[in-house]
Amino acid sequence: MRPAINPTIYPHAFDTGGHNPATTLETMNRICSQFLILTMVVISGASLPVMGQDARFSQFFTTPQLVNPAFTSLFQGDYQVSLNYRSQWRSVMDNPYSTIAAAGSMKVYPRFADCDYVGLGFDLLADRAGALSFGTVQANVSAAYYKSLNGRGTRFLGLGFSGGVAQRSLNYDPATDFLEPGEALATERFGFADVSAGLVYSHMINREAYWYAGGSMFHLNTPEQGFLNSSRGPTGIGEPLDMRYVLHGGGSFPLTERWHLRPSVMWQRQGAHMETVAGSFLKFETATGPKAERGNAVHLGAFYRLKDALLVAGRLDFNHYYLTISYDVTTGKLTDANYGAGGLEISLAKALFRDKRPSCPSPVDCPLF
Q1: Is-contact 309 331, C-beta < 8 A?
Q2: Comparing C-alpha atoms, which of 369, 327, 283, 332 is closest to residue 87?
Q3: pLDDT, tens digit, 9 for 90 and up, residues 298-323
Q4: Which CATH architecture has domain 21-352?
Q5: What is the pTM of this model?
């Protein structure tokens, strides 16, 4: 038996006077159309971004700008540029997820502290998914200060901040056949500002071994989201973007002169979504001898994202170029739908060195990502 409608809660449920039935029908059609479009977004596979989950890469170790702003310039060398590409759900979707990220950063050495340095960087992100082409384009600038805790450049505490602007968009074209002539929809795009911060501690035990740990918070300003917000649509419902909390750690430890173990772990949470991923690379140095030659190496690795996927990866380091290729093998509930075919990722980075470097008692080179 259906419950009776309480007129104190729904004051317009019994108010038929003064309302044009045609206007009421038009309003109902608009609401139904908007509900249909939102349903298509969910079915198309773009529901996670709409609900406020950030775009992500399985290779979190090659996209430090998405893990912690304090990672700005935490790398070997003085300059670094990188490019990442991810394609996901291609086996089950006509319009699969596609994500591209580019980043660049540099170190600045202040004269008032021999072993401290400042990291400056930028990053760009473009993400598109689903039948309605739900997309995000974001540009950030970041800065971090690394304080040497022992005056020798082997223990650092880094504090970093990032800020930028973003735009989200939808393509309503696949749903326009369901609309009445002249019927209006919510906005197809909107922009917002974004601010994040983080801390990281790194310790170089010697030239061959180091470890690091840190945490970060993204979307500190909880920017307003949603294509039907009060300022962008008729519902009057605010949709702030949930803050994302990240904890992470890792390191590199020699097993023999040429073999190194390089574990990494990351936990993050955003609203109702949580992710835990952990694993390790096994690094083999292809040559021993001078430091310049010892930068060349081959890595093989495996990482597991809890209740979701197994990541297998390979990496090649050559003359300070770093090429990483990985593939997600689905192990969670979606295995039956995609037969384990998850996502392919490719990343390429290049590190550059200055001719003259600061005169710190120990090298200021930091963990190699």
Answers
A1: yes
A2: 327
A3: 999 999 999 888 999 999 999 889 99
A4: Beta Barrel (2.40)
A5: 0.76
